[in-house]
């Protein structure tokens, strides 16, 4: 079945001061799919990911032109509440960054900030989020213990659960496995397959095999330009652009 577009990007340009870091990017990100961004270091993958939930707003000297729509809403329109936006579009980073508090409190943090006080509802959200991130069984007997006592791979799944706890629609993942061992990496990759049933997932990865394994669509970036975008199998089997072909065959990067 053809998937509908969840995020539409039109003519997006981003400048860090004089540095033109994203050049006329256009993309339709499909709902309930995993979209991967690949490309060599410094090509703008993370910068682009962050424009999708306005995380770049926090950086001094950034200027953005163009349009990003979530469903039919322009996320850069005047009056958009970025707290609400980031609740709808959650984010997971390269380094697992659980808060220095209990596993339970990490997950309950977002719902509490958004006003949830009811203990039994919070309990249910915590369990559901941990299950959604495939870590409930591993931590159910130590919910009151510090999240910092978990392994890196478990911490990353706690961060995913924390993002799920506020019921997002989209999950942005910035190289979520690059700090993890192969077993933790494959757990997160399996999880992505599951997550896309409920959410729209966008992942930046350095690892082309990972893009092939987990994603439906792939975008290839090179010095701020989105060179090629489309169905992952097609991009990796029949790249249209010579630069994409050179990159995926390992000629540079
Ligand atoms: N906060 C910032 N301030 C100024 N320039 C920045 C900032 N963040 C990134 N840049 C610049 O923007 C360009 C794109 O960087 P970005 O981190 O988005 O690339 P990337 O493809 O994600 O790289 P990597 O894979 O190494 O993380 C680079 O030239 C980088 O130096």
From TrEMBL:
Coiled coil region boundaries: none
Gene name of this polypeptide: pstB
Domain ABC transporter per the UniProt entry, residue ranges: 7-248
UniProt-recorded name of the protein: Phosphate ABC transporter ATP-binding protein
NCBIfam families with a match to the protein in the record: 3a0107s01c2
Gene3D superfamilies cross-referenced by the UniProt entry: P-loop containing nucleotide triphosphate hydrolases
GO MF assignments: ATP binding; ATP hydrolysis activity; phosphate transmembrane transporter activity
Annotated TM spans: none
Biological source species: Roseburia faecis
CC annotations in GO: plasma membrane
The keyword Ribonucleoprotein belongs to this UniProt entry's keyword annotation: no
Key word ATP-binding present: yes
Subcellular location: Cell inner membrane
Function: Part of the ABC transporter complex PstSACB involved in phosphate import. Responsible for energy coupling to the transport system.
Mode of membrane association: Peripheral membrane protein
Keyword vocabulary terms for this entry: ATP-binding, Cell membrane, Membrane, Nucleotide-binding, Phosphate transport, Translocase, Transport
InterPro entries cross-referenced by the UniProt entry: AAA+_ATPase, ABC_transporter-like_ATP-bd, ABC_transporter-like_CS, P-loop_NTPase, PstB-like
GO BP, sorted A to Z: phosphate ion transmembrane transport
